[in-house]
Every structure is written in C-alpha cells, then in structure tokens.
Amino acid sequence: MRKRWAITIFVVLAAAFLIWKFIINADKAVYEKPLVPVRIAKAERSTVEESLKLTGYIEADAMIPVVPFVSGTITEYLVSEGDYVEKDSVMAVIDVQPYSLQVSQAQAVYTATLATFERVNNLYNSGAATKQQFDEVKAQLDAYKAQLDLANLQLDYCNVKAPVSGTVLVSNSAEGSVAAQGNYIFIMADITKLKVTLNVPEKYFDIFSSKSGELSAFISRDGKTTEATVSSVAPYVSPQSKTFKVTLELKDADGFVPGMFVTASVVYNRLENVLVLDWKTRNNDGTVYAYNQETETAVCLEPEVLASGDEVFAIDDSYAGTWFIVDGQSSVMDGKKVKVVE
C-alpha cells in the first residue's frame, strides 16, 4: 500500500516537473506597443496679419453743443432727438419781447442823436460850431449806433440756429423752460462721420508710430464689420495709464451710431506668400513635430514664429517641403516611430 502511494506521488511530482519545465522553456510572447497614428501635411503659403484687438465706443467726429447767446424763456422748441437739421436752421426760439424793447429803445436814442449830429454837422460846415463839438456829437452817434447794432444782434440771437448740418443727439430743454446764456440746449453731430478712440498699450507705440500710414483697421459689433482708417496716432504716452490714443475713422457708418460698444482690430503687420502652420500644430512649449519619412519617426522642432495670425503663424522658408505632424502630435515623442494615416 505504501509502495503504491509512493509511486503515485512520484508520478505526480514528475508530471509537475515536466509541466514546469515546458512552461519555462516555452517561447515567451513579446508585447509590442502599437505605433501612434498621426496625420501629416506640409506648410502652406498664405498671408498672415498681426493685429491688436481692443474695445471702444463709437463717437461722432465732432459733437457740437448748440448754445443760446441770450437768456430767456423758450417759446418754441422746434426739433427733437434724432432729427436731421441743416446748418442755420432755427432749432428753438427764445422770447423776443424784451429784446424787441431793447431794439426800440436803442433805435429811439440813435434817431435822436442822429438828428443832433446832422444839426451840428451843418453848423460845423458853416463855421458856427467847433471841431470839438462836432467830434463829441459824432462819438455819441457812433456809440448809440453800436448799441443799436448790439440790440439787433441780440434780437436775432433769439432764433437759436444750427451751427452745422447734422443730427440732434441730445435735446436738453423744452418749450416753456428758461434758456441760460452759455448752457447748451441741444447736442448735434454729423453721424455720417464716426470714429473710435482706442487706448493702446505702450509696447505698441514704436510700431504704430513708425507705420501710422500703413495701419489698417476693422470695427465690428454683433456680426457686422466695417473698415476703418487710422486718422491719428498720439505722439505721447500717458504716464498714468501707460497707453497712447489711436483714433479710427469708420469708412461706412451704416449700422453704427454714437455710443455703441464695438471691437476694433488694428492690423500692424502683414506678411504675404509666407509658409504658415495652423496654431493647432504647435505645443504649449512652442515646439512642433516634423515627420522623417526615412526613419518614420517624429522629429521635435522649435521654428521661429515670424508673424502671428488669429489661426496660423508664419515660419521660415527653410521649412518648405518639410512634413509636419498636424494631428496626433500631443501623443508622440521625439525620435519615436509613428504611423501615418490618411
């Protein structure tokens, strides 16, 4: 019985040994990591525009306050906000009665003095009056004539007229209210000539100043865009804000009115027919990956960015013909093989 158990144990151990031997001597399976799939493309030629985007407000080229030159009660208020007014049109009328009385008073004094002057002038011509008498009456006549002219001018000022042709932006009074000399009752402007004033960071001062005649710009809001010209670049930088002012003039004011909040894009550098790559091909550290067709490997490069557009950037012509990894580059490593897919 013991002999039978011993034989059984021996057979089991022998079988286990043979199985173990077979396992360790069997060919081991080698796991190979699959190659990273990538798409490749060559740099294309295109135009790159470098621009600065800032925000601002639409303004009229000139905001003109309409100010009465005399004070008094407004008896007629003839225009409203939004009305277009031709130059010299009457916009409001100030009570003329007190100024008419001034004219009548000045006219009466002038008429009486004129009669006195004529008598003295006749006497002077006949030698019956002295030169001093003549000069005194003549001076009085001139003074009263000036008072009459002033009274007539003030009466004319009761008609408050448009100083320019334009649109009424603000009406600051009403019929029955009192107009004070020097305080505006309207603000008007030519809204066909609009502008945007930008506060540009100091670091752009040199390039904006040197290329002021070459700058181009665009104004946009709610999907509508119009071209603009750079009408002026301030010759100084504000020490408080570290900015300088750039004024843009809209070429087409249709759809834009004073006060609108807009985005302005000023193009300060333009390169034509240059090699460009999509920004998506560039890693956060500034590198891109090229593809070596001979070794089928990824090659890490750090090309100089010649100009930065919104979607692409320009690189040197020496990269013409180079294949760049344009998709899958975030998963590759320098010198490692990759698999090109369509």
Please give the structural blueprint.
Elements: H1 2-25, E1 36-42, E2 44-60, E3 63-66, E4 72-77, E5 84-85, E6 90-94, H2 97-126, H3 131-156, E7 159-161, E8 166-171, E9 178-179, E10 186-189, E11 194-201, H4 205-210, E12 216-221, E13 224-233, E14 243-250, E15 261-278, E16 288-292, E17 297-301, E18 307-308, E19 312-315, E20 323-327, E21 338-340
Parallel strand pairs: 1-21
Antiparallel strand pairs: 1-20, 2-11, 2-15, 3-10, 4-6, 4-9, 5-8, 6-7, 8-10, 11-14, 12-13, 12-15, 13-14, 15-19, 16-17, 18-19
Helix pairs in contact: 2-3
Notable characteristics:
alpha+beta; conserved putative lor/sdh protein from methanococcus maripaludis s2 fold; Elongation Factor Tu (Ef-tu), domain 3; OB fold (Dihydrolipoamide Acetyltransferase, E2P); six-stranded antiparallel barrel; four-stranded antiparallel β-sheet; 4 helices; 21 strands; 38% strand; rod-shaped
Entry summary:
This protein is α+β, with helices and mostly antiparallel strands and 342 residues long. It has helices at residues 2-25, 97-126, 131-156, 205-210, and strands spanning 36-42, 44-60, 63-66, 72-77, 84-85, 90-94, 159-161, 166-171, 178-179, 186-189, 194-201, 216-221, 224-233, 243-250, 261-278, 288-292, 297-301, 307-308, 312-315, 323-327, 338-340.
